[in-house]
Amino acid sequence: MKMFRILVVLAALSLFLLGTIAIAQQSTVLKVAYWRQTGTAQARAFDKWFGEAIPEFKALHPNVKIETIAITGSEGDYYTKLALMMRAASTAPYVVFEDSFMIGSDAAAGYLLPINKYVTHWQDWKHFYPAMRKITEFHGKVYGVMNGSDVRGLWYNKEILEKAGIKVPWQPKTWTEILNAAKLIKEKVPGVIPFSMYSGVPDDEGSTMQGYEMLLYGTSMGNNALYDWKTDKWVESSPGIEHTLQFIRKVFTEGLAEPLQDALNPQYGSVVSQQLLPQGKLAIDLDGMWVYGTWLSGSPTPWPEWKKVMGFALMPTEYGQDPGFVSLSGGWAFSITSHSKHPDLAWNFIKIASSAKNLATFDYYVANTAVRDDEINYIYAKTPLADVFANVMKYTHYRPAFPEYPKISYQIDLAMENAMLGRPIKETMKGYAAAVRGIVGSENTEILK
Amino acid sequence: MEKTRFRLWIVPLLPAFVLLGVFFVLPAIWAVYISFTNMALTGPTALHWNFVGLHNFYQIALDKYFWTSLYVTLFFLFGSIIGQFVIGLLLAVYLERKSTFVRLSVEALAIIAWIMPEVVGGFSWVSFLNYPGGLANILLSSLNLSQSWLFLHPLFSVTIANIWHGTAFSMLMFIAALNGIPKEVIESARIDGASSFRIFFNITLPLIKISILTDLILITLFTMGEFTLVFTMTGGGPGMATNLLSIYAYRQAFSFYDISYGSAISLVMLVIGMIIALSYVFLSKKQQKS
Q1: Contacts A77 to B, Cβ<8 Å
Q2: To probe the interface with A, which of B131, B247, B257 has the most A CB atoms within 10 Å?
Q3: Number of folded domains in chain B?
Q4: In a domain, B32, yes or no
Q5: Considering the domain boundaries, does residue B12 fall inside one?
Q6: Please, where in chain A does CATH 3.40.190.10 lie?
Q7: pLDDT of residue A197
Q8: What is the pLDDT of residue A106?
Q9: Is pLDDT at B160 greater than 90 in this prediction?
Q10: Is the predicted pLDDT of residue A167 greater than 50, yes or no?
């Protein structure tokens, strides 16, 4: 009996010791949270990217375990989940993958750690394009390292344009040229949607950025069209807003764009890239450069002929005024949370994941544009149209990523819907102006003439 | 003896109380509390929020989108109540005299609609109402009524979908109530020469009054809280056409990260639901007295 007791005590003791050794060995866990769009090219890109970066990190830090937290769901739900996790020290990941437009809000919230002390001593920082270093800055502090960016423009089906008698390669110089092409297609190639753009509430911020802002920043208001950077005020009313809404009203009420019930279908984005474009049912699409990612082999709807059929044109400014073209850019970044228990380790992980070779892998597979000038030395060189997209970067603008932006974006989407439904532009503009004043306070808005 | 019985009584219920307390009562109290603050999920007031008193409620009163959503909610609520109540009651009365086969088939169909996850139900309705090519439009094309229902009559469409979804509950409730009426009462009334119509209004309805009241209260509360079915079908659109208060509260809290304003809206929803539910009780009491 005594023997038995001793045995039990010994067993318990050894278990305890084993446990402590195990805990000591795995003392550090680095939690990395990211958005995973299961079943898409994005998920595959993450697997390839982490598949290279994590072993590299482990070789340098054998005692640190990297725990990747893949969060699935819609983009909006991802931010909500991330915000909830970052609120408390016990649930906060140490490294987070965030859209650059959320960084300002999350920095203001105190969720993120400024990383100036790390990037200033980092040799590679100078390889990031100046705009890509600037985009994660908030009140003079850097809060993230960009993983990839994007540009927007006009995808067009060369075969349909040729059928309508339009010469390819096609590069419109003004809005009127786009409208004329669409009218010609409507007349000459029946059964095809001449022009498509994201518009309205169901596509959330996608409508604002891919649709509305691509027009608005091309008006004479230019970079100050949405938010006036000279006065730090939101623009509640301007001729630019009026012209933008008129353009939207025109394409949707004159049958130049997709039918309204399609445009207001939340799945319309995938309908465009997976069905309408590959099936030759859509001629001109104002969209993101990443659309071709859907057609690569190993994607949901491979379309090997796309390079022959599809062309990419720059979006012109309204009258072709300087600088001639317009684009919007965003992109995602890695940031360190303020609750991170091991900021130095978190930084080391970001540094390794953001090497030219590793970012090239991610950007190639996810169909991004490069954020570093040396990604082109690696697999990114295989990106189709890489030089075209790099050229668009010259004309690109960034969103005013302030905490109020999501609310204003919703008001823009509602205004777009009013225009699509053919409601009077003057009234819609009045409603928008009142809503913007309500969101940011009338002392923070202005009227541009 | 009394005391021990009390203790024994509490033991098996304790886990339920704890779970309800932690996952239901505490978050509810928390939601009430944050409606009086300016807490957000991101931005400057995320971690450093302040107590702002009635500010959120004052904002709600001035918020025209709130009033639009309230109108949408009330239309949806009363449409659903009338539809579910009337169809549920008619089905229960109709099935009472039918063969077991008919009764079981109809009941099964209604219950399938009820237990089907709302996301699945929502998507089924979207494809049913799809234009062109959805089954509804194929059936209606002979009447020249084929059209984009979710776009042209969105609020009407989602209300119909909700009636379809919830009718089984009223039906089951009334089947049980009708079974509870003693057969002799009906039979003697018939012998006295009362018509079926008269029997239904003067005997059946008064006898199942408690069930009617419970049914109305529960439908009201279910419908006030309805979110998934409509969100799957329309996302609250087009525009604000089907933007229920629940969807509006969700959007404020989780799309605009304004969790305090979203909570304030849901608190207002709760009050509206309670007022409507209590008014049934009040009306039935008043009627009882007269």
Answers
A1: 254
A2: B257
A3: 1
A4: no
A5: no
A6: 15-143+331-396, 152-329+401-447
A7: 95
A8: 92
A9: yes
A10: yes
The answer to whether B95 and B175 are in contact (CB under 8 A) is yes
Q: Do A76 and B255 touch (CB under 8 A)?
A: yes
| Pairwise CB contact (< 8 Å): B41 & A204 | no
Give yes or no for B238 touching A (CB within 8 A). yes
> Would you say residue B70 has pLDDT above 90?
yes
Residue B273 within a domain: yes
- Whose tokens are 């984009």? That residue is B148
**Residue A334 in contact with residue A97, Cβ under 8 Å?**
yes
The structural architecture, per CATH, of the domain A152-329+401-447 is 3-Layer(aba) Sandwich (3.40)
Taking residues A433-440, report their average pLDDT.
92
Angle CA A299–A304–A309, to nearest 5: 120
Going by their DSSP bridges, the two strands A152-157 and A331-336 should be labelled as unpaired
Whether the predicted pLDDT of A1 surpasses 60? no
Residue of A nearest to B62 (CA): A438
CATH no. for residue B208? Answer: 1.10.3720.10
User: Are A188 and A164 contacting, i.e. CB atoms less than 8 angstroms apart?
Assistant: yes
For the domain covering A15-143+331-396, report its CATH number: 3.40.190.10
Within-domain flag for B13 = no
Range of the domain at B280: 57-289
Please report the pLDDT score of residue A195 as a whole number: 97
Of A279, A267, A272, A270, give the one whose Cα is nearest residue A306.
A279
Whether the upstream peptide bond of residue A406 has omega within 30° of 0, thus cis, is: no
Query: In sequence order, what are the residues at sequence separation of 6 or more whose Cβ sits closer than 8 angstroms to the Cβ of residue A174?
Result: A316, A317, A318, A319, A320
User: How sure is the predictor about A177, in pLDDT bands with cuts at 50, 70 and 90?
Assistant: very high
Closest residue by Cα to residue B91 from B76, B101, B102, B75: B102
- Give pLDDT tens digits for A207-231: 999 999 999 999 999 999 999 989 9
- Of all residues in chain B, the percent with pLDDT exceeding 90 is 45
Residue B16 distance to chain A (closest CA, Å): 27
Does B42 contact A204 at a Cβ distance shorter than 8 Å? Answer: no
Instruction: Decide if A102 and B40 are in contact by the 8 Å CB cutoff.
Output: no
- Asked if the model's pLDDT at residue B7 lies above 80, the reply is no
